[in-house]
Amino acid sequence: MRYIQKHITLVCLAALLLCVLLAASVAGTKAVAGRRYQPAEPTDVPVLNYHKVDNIDHSLVLTPAEFEEQMSYLAENGYHAITPDQLMGYLKYGRSLPDKPVLITFDDGYADNYVNAYPILKKYGFTATIFLITDFIGADERFLTWDQVREMQKNGFVFGSHTVNHQPLTKLSPEDASAELTESAREIERQLGAKPRYFAYPTGAYNLKVEELVRQAGYRAAFTIRYGQVGIESDPYAIERIPLYHSRKTFRSFYCRLTAASLLERLSIFKN
Ligand SMILES: [Zn+2]
Hints:
8 helices; 2 domains; binds zinc ion
């Protein structure tokens, strides 16, 4: 009797496992079917995230020499800088991307992005996307001026919103969070002639409610600081990036993060 009970329990467990596997496979099929397109060879896109490029010893600040070493590596190894529009065209409609695409982004809109990073980016033929805190632009010498922003825009740089005041949206009421999203967009439109299509979460803080507010405010996509490469399964309102820091081994860390992200992600080692 005990043997039969044990046997039945095992059969039940096996059936349960089968059901779970079947459900997972159906869910996977549905997720794919719900998309407008499935590329034959999906590409993972690294979205690099920088802040300051200056001669200051701080983990969020790369020296110009460190930044140049990374840009030179990308250029020598055949990477092509893309725009967020190209990334979204690929994710939503399967439009093709250049070989070895990379999206270079900066948060906060520091003046050194123009003074130090911009000449290096131009030297290697790259453009970047910069997320601006609109109340800080032109406020003091630490931040970009609107004239600098317009000059970079003329040369292919893209500007997104990083709110008005850099407050984490998860800490604000929905009304205040919406105001940060729409008022920063309005100011960028006033200064640059077009509404920004992309947003980056201040401090990386977001949740489903905040994602919805970003969508309602009219942005096409939003960038997090969650580690990972972007692929066809990525949520457009929770785009992964690769944060890059200054350390004793800045280049080594950049190289590992750039080249190993995809594999480590698949093994679920890196994603948080
Ligand atoms: Zn920021």
